[in-house]
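Hello,

I think I submitted the copper (II) ion job twice by accident. Can you confirm which output corresponds to this input? Input:
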Amino acid sequence: MEKARLLMKKLKIDRMRGSYCAALLPFWLSALLTVTPSSHAAPSYNPVITPDVGSLPYKMVDGVKEFHLIAEKVKREFAPGYVFDCWGYNGTTPGPTIEAVEGDRVRILVTNRLPAPHAVHWHGLFLPNGMDGVGGLTQSYIQPGQTFAYEFDLVQHGTFFYHPHADESVQIAMGMEGFFIIHPKDGEPKKIDRDYCIFLHMWQIPPGTSKPNPNAMFDFNYFTFNSRIYPGTSPVIAQKGDRVRVRFANISMESHPIHIHGVSFLVTATEGGQIAENAQHPTTTVNVPPGTAKVIEFVPEYSGDWPFHCHKTHHAMNAMEHNLPNVIGVDQDAVEQKMSKMIPGYMAMGTSGMHEMGEHAEHMPAPKNTPPMMAGVGPFARINMGGMFTVLKVRDTITDYDAVTGWYEHPPGTVAEEVPTPE
Amino acid sequence: MKSIFHNSPATRLLAHRTPLVLGVLTIFAVSCKTVRHHADIRDVGRDVQRRVADSGVAVKLEPDRHLADERKRTLDEKPLGLRNAIQIALLNNPQLLQDYEALGVERAALRHATILRNPTIHFDILESFEDEESVPLFVPGVGFVEPDTRDAQFHFSVTMDFIDVIRRHEMAKVSRARMEVEKMRLSEKVIRLITDVSIAVYTYQGESMKLSLMQKVLDGVAVRLEMALEQHRVGNISDLTLAGHQAAYQDITLKRTDQQRNVTVARERINQLLGFWGESTAWSMPTELTRPGSSVSDESVDRAISNSLAIEAAMYEIGILKRELGVNKATIIPALELGLIREEEDFHIPASGVSGALEIPIFDRNQTEVERYTALLRQKEHELSSIGIHLRSEFRLLRELHDELIGKIEYYESAVLPLKSRIVKLSLEHYNGMFLGPYALLEAKMDELRARKAYVEILKKYWITRAELDHVLAGGRIGDAAMEPVADTAPAKKDGHGGH
Ligand SMILES: [Cu+2]
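Support: Only one job matched these inputs. Its output is below.
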């Protein structure tokens, strides 16, 4: 409950506009219940952090780690006040992260509470062919109401994921995916202080609606980190000098070049395994193509609030129509006057870009359940961002990571400010 | 008129011969039928007033031009609306004024039919050809005859058709009935005029409302074009895209012109019906159609039937035909001509006596006329039932259309128009969120305007239908085919008096 309260608090701090919907509380609580690990002993590994999702609990049954994955419809709050009708596992999208250790034998019970046949594929894992989870090819479909058991030994370690291999274009588009993390049996070669999992996804949800359109091939309008859009995304938090690992996975229709400010990082692994150290090169952007996982590691040396986002510009904003007439530089004064006579409340916009959109959203009615395409308020002004955007919060010292919520306090003289324009 | 004749020779002549003038005037007054047919027209006015009492229109037919012009002047001072438009039309409609005179003509013709045939005077004067050689004359069928060569002779006789006297009484009744039918026809024309004026006014109002909506659509397209021109100016759209906007503007401009034409036509119709010309055509009228009235019950068809002038006229005509049939049966008695005769020969020995002529009904016993009238009567009876059936059926159609239109109007008002407005509001919301561009937003507004235009069209159609329905309830006819004019069924009279 304490954790739930904290999460609520966090959401309130990051909220962009509108009031947090109290009615969602039970849904959040149920999501959190799945997050809380219920293993008997403390894990022998450093658990990953899957922001806004959590990990799937297990129980030991005759020496086998038994997980229970439930495929079902879920309500996902992409950002405070904006709830969408998705599909997922155990109340969330992405589904909770399955964490185990190399050498474990796992049994994953999959109950299908969807209205459609289902099958779960364990992407990147070496396992008996009949456990690969491909409907029709390696197994029968899990019919609605049925439970199937997948049981296999974990013979590798690394970053993997699970997703449906039944009616993929629909079920994945609806939000069905999740991490499968296998920790090395001998522990990490270098101690990892913060180990994040972020699933990249994109959606087409027409403005004013609540259901993703699985028919979409193009023109997606929501781009999510763990099925959250900025400012609903949780920040990535690290102390200066921490070794930070971020594991990205992507099974959406496009690649996402994720860029992080303030750090240089190495791509250390993919879903195929570890990359040899001499093959790792420094970069600030990692492209995550569909069907892959990319693992990066860095040690932040500079404190601050650093943007963490997809570098495809339209992926770092929320829904908008892309076929709008181009009015950049168009003097709309005369037209605006005439238009507002015909349509009271009309306001010309776009002449100098979309910068003012966030502010418009504050006082102009918009379609229901549709976040403004850019929202979020920073310490200096509005932040023209949405979608795949969050903040890497690096602090000099941190005693409680969950308590890092406020904005970075800049040392004097380290913030750009206005000076006289040179002649 | 007075000024023209003032002190004219005619005036002086009249002034000096007062007794003669009085005599002439008396004769004129006695023979003049003007007063009589003016009374007929005022009768018709009262009848129509009763029929259209619900409409609140004061029906006063004024056949006297002087009085009519005076009343029209007071009406002209008021702003033009439906009711005074009707009143002006009743005073000033050129066709109605012709119809008034036609009624006068009819009245005269019918009276003529009831006047006794004038007695006939026969006379002949013969002279003898004593000293001359007689020339034989050829007489066809007889041969050559010797002409009479006696002294001069003088024959004189007065005869009168007595059968005509016998028939006269019956014919007078027929004529009175015919006059009633004629008055009904005039009632129909007056009611039709009221309806036509109503329809013209509703049409004008509706078309004017549509014009102002069309203007708003044009304004919208103009704003769109303005935006496009500015976009083009700063290099955001191609020549082709701009041309598309220009074409759309041209298209709506032409459509607006068409709508302007509709208004002009509707306006001219009012001018025609109200007899307006010159300065009087510069009228203005509120251009707002009001909301529909109440629905009409199914039972009101009985009122339409009982009021129907066509049915009443047909019944009168059946009566007339029956009477005419009776008269024709009666004239199987042979025609008899009786007269007085005076004869003088050689201007010395006058003689006088009685003359007579008796038709011998061997061949023509009037049986063909009896047959003809019998057939005409049956034809009229069939026609009567046909009028009834058609009237009921068409009344039902009209009433259903009327109620359907009320339903449509209510649907427009309660659902269609609010939804179109809601679409504009939602479009604005989508525009605010940048999910919709200004053009699409404008399009939503135009769509609302188009829906409003369609609504006005239905409202107009409703009021026209309502006018037709009221027309039928007042006794008018639906369509023209319901009844043929009397002239076509009336027999051609031997004496040439009956036809009209
Ligand atoms: Cu992206």
